[in-house]
Design brief:
By secondary structure, this protein is mainly β. The chain is about 10% helix and about 40% strand. It has 1 helix and 9 strands, in the order αβββββββββ. It has one helix at about 5-20; strands spanning about 30-35, 45-50, 60-65, 70-75, 85-90, 100-110, 125-130, 135, 140. The protein has a 4-stranded antiparallel β-sheet, with no helix packed on it. A 3-stranded antiparallel β-sheet has the order 1-2-5, with no helix packed on it. Strands 8-9 form a two-stranded antiparallel ribbon.
Length: about 140
């Protein structure tokens, strides 16, 4: 026999945990939706989406890290519109990479100076494997 309060709590938890609402009062919610390390060109793409209802017109910074070390930072001055069209930020891939497993992570607004950036969604990371035959940032 199930208790009524338990069912209510589980249903409330599931409903509350299914979608992350726009946390900003301004209607802007920037998130890093993906980090892509290109296998063809020596670059790394950071994909940013605005999941809110309004466009962001302020400047925002994006930081790229590899294994807890900053390898690039850029300031975005473009208007980031809401909707399905993402903004792609391109970073150069490091010239020399040690062989093994590395962790790439991108973060929007690392100094947390813009209130339109949700702290829950502002970072994304991927793991990349580098073979021992790396030279000049490209696999042979």
């Amino acid at each position: 026999m199930m208790r009524k309060g338990y069912v209510r709590w589980v249903v409330g938890f599931l409903v509350a945990g299914t979608a992350m609402p726009c946390l900003a009062e301004s209607g802007v919610d920037l998130v890093v939706s993906d980090v892509v390390a290109s296998a063809v060109a020596p670059k790394i793409l950071v994909v940013i989406r605005n999941q809110g209802t309004k466009a962001l017109t302020k400047n925002v910074s994006v930081e790229l890290r590899m294994d807890d070390m900053v390898i690039g930072a850029q300031e975005i001055t473009d208007t980031i519109k809401s909707g399905p069209n993402p903004l792609y930020v391109e970073f150069p891939r490091p010239e020399q990479l040690a062989p093994g497993l590395h962790y790439l992570s991108a973060r929007i607004d690392p100094d947390e100076s813009i209130k339109e950036v949700s702290k829950a969604n502002n970072m994304k990371g991927i793991s990349v494997w580098v073979n021992g035959n790396q030279e000049g940032g490209r696999a042979r």
